[in-house]
Amino acid sequence: MIEEGLRKGVVRVVVATNALELGIDIGGMEASLMVGYPGTVAGTWQEAGRSGRGDKPSLAVLVASPNPLDQYLAQHPDYFFTRSPEHGMINPDNLLILLGHLRCAAFELPFRKGEVFGSVTPSDMQELLDFLQSEGVIHESGDKYFWMADKYPAQSVSLRSASTERVLLQIPRLEDNTSYSLQTIGEVDVSSSYWLTHPGAVYMHEGVTYLVKELDLEKKQATLEQTGVDYYTEPRREVGVQQISRLAQSTVPGGEKAFGEILVTTQIIGFRKIRWHTNETLGVENLLLPPSDLNTIGYWLSLADETVARLRDEGLWSSKPNDYGPLWERQRGMARARDGFRCQVCGLAEDNNEHHVHHKIPFRMFETADQANQLTNLITLCSSCHRKVETAVRVRSGLAGLAFTLGNLAPLFLMCDIGDIGIHSDPQSSLAEGKPTVILYDLIPGGIGLSERLFDIHSELMIRGRELVECCGCEDGCPSCVGPGGEGGSGGKRETLAILKELSM
């Protein structure tokens, strides 16, 4: 009907996903309106090319979203128009990908002994064939290996993930007046299920909103029920990164860059309920799911001691003076008395000068002074330790902003989705002998080359990141530049920009 209407001129406007062109002749359209950057140069030209296929001039308009990548291209259109389309990145030697290819190849033709596949060595090839035989999917007969499983192997190859394990999404269906059965409506890979389908998560499927009631990782199934809530959920994660092997390292302005094999351990510790449209936080709930491990490839950037010292000397702090309220002096005195008038870090006792009182959770993260000034949120510190703690907060704020900026800009150089890249910031990373570090890593088991590419283009990534933050018109950080850079989700722009200036010199 759409195709016929377009052909007759009855349908003048079509609103659709980027799959509009599949199976539909739209050669007569005169304009394309793209809402948000499609994610790649190649994808943008493809969508723009859906109009103007005849002899008449056509128009293509890109409406930028608040996404940092969109905002960068809006500020620097020449960067887009002078770039060639990206090259798709894949690592054919990734073990999960390779085994999938071998299964599909064995289904088509039997392997001969001594035959190789791609760049796999004969000894490794034999080991892989032995593994597939132990799985029961191929059988050795004479000098050949034949496919013997009862299913088509390509059915198990996902277009969205390298992981082969799936969690089924099921909803209860009334069979009769007394019994229910579970109907499968979809599936997600196991690694994504921790944050997509944890208990209490809001999950959308084919335009319908569901609430996850239970996640059974042993049975690989999640139970959902249809709901009409006016909020979405955002998981709260704790992430730890350990180095397995370092494949390359190099000194760069402001620090060092490296990439290598890492183990990323992630645990979902809770989630936030956020109202649609207003992004108002409605509540925070705790969870305790088992940790999940991801063995992948990462690229990390650590700040040199000299860089941290210069940032400290600049006295980075962008917030305005706080009004601690009329009862502040009383609360301050009670906190000092409770702590024995001693610094709770170094133990130094007060002399003629009173010690400082520090808010553990920053004052600006509370709605009222009374909430912020609760004794449980106050700690006594000497002036020296207070300065160090404030510096640590500022460095953390800048690191989080840096990670957000680089993670959102990375797809500009990679033919991937932002969801293919993980980001993590650590003020004292074990990957860099305790130095402040930002880590970007492939969210694909074994990696597919994204991190290595970021390692190679490090200098350009720093320059583009600095341009993005400098051009943003916000005062102290926003989702279009450094995102939730500060603790609790605000601030961090000045700190992030200072770090980027050091890294792009």
Map the helices and strands.
Blueprint: H1 2-8, E1 31-35, H2 41-48, E2 59-63, H3 68-75, H4 77-81, H5 95-108, E3 111-112, H6 122-135, E4 138-141, E5 144-147, E6 166-174, E7 180-189, H7 190-196, E8 202-205, E9 208-216, E10 221-226, E11 231-252, E12 255-275, E13 281-286, E14 292-303, H8 305-313, H9 328-338, E15 356-359, H10 369-372, E16 378-381, H11 383-409, E17 421-429, E18 435-442, H12 450-456, H13 458-471, H14 493-503
Parallel strand pairs: 1-2, 6-10
Antiparallel strand pairs: 3-5, 4-5, 6-7, 8-9, 9-10, 11-12, 12-13, 12-14, 14-18, 15-16, 17-18
Number of separate structural domains:
3
Residue fraction in strands? 25-35%
Percent range for helical residues?
Answer: 25-40%
Total strands: the figure is: 18
Radius of gyration: 27 Å
* First-to-last CA distance: 58 Å
User: What structural class results from the helix and strand content?
Assistant: alpha+beta
* Tally of DSSP helical segments: 14
Mean pLDDT: 84
Strand count, sense and barrel status of the largest sheet are: 6 strands, antiparallel
Quaternary arrangement of the chains shown? Answer: single chain
